[in-house]
Amino acid sequence: MADTLRLEIVTPERHLVDAQVESVQIPGLDGELGILPGHSPLISQLKPAGLLSYVQGGATHQIVIAEGFVEVLPNQVRVLAEVAENPTEIDVERAIRARDRAEKLVSQSLTDPEVDADAATRALARAAARLEAAKKK
Question: N or C: which end of the chain has fewer CB within 10 A?
């Protein structure tokens, strides 16, 4: 069995990661997926937002991902995400404003049927994941 697997993280706008890695932790819709070389094939939906982490050369790296799918093969992990960002790309002030807006919308959705509660919850999860990643950078 190989010691590494290929990790690809792709969004509609860019190819963010293409690297040989030792392991990957993926925020799947039904829970965290820990992937090592030789993993059984699977396809899963991603959480609305979360942190993907991977180990490369003994160092752990993180990427914020939101919406999409992951395909796992024995020697490859392909993440097709709607959004993916490196923690260094995150504008913390903007993420704080987005979190505050999303919190207000979630609160409003409890009393106002015109507010899309699912969209507000996804926006809040995205902002929280971005802030968590920025805090760790």
Answer: N
Residue 26, Cα to own-chain centre: how many angstroms? Answer: 7
Residue 9 half-sphere exposure toward CB, CA atoms < 13 A = 26
Q: Are 66 and 90 in contact (CB under 8 A)?
A: no
Sequence letter at residue 91: D
Find where tokens 């990790």 sit: 7
Q: 98-115: per-residue pLDDT in tens?
A: 899 989 988 888 888 888
Grade residue 33 by pLDDT with cuts at 50, 70 and 90. very high
Residues 6+ away with beta carbon under 8 Å from 87: 62, 63, 64, 133, 134, 136, 137
Domains of the chain as residue ranges with CATH: 5-85 (2.60.15.10), 90-136 (1.20.5)
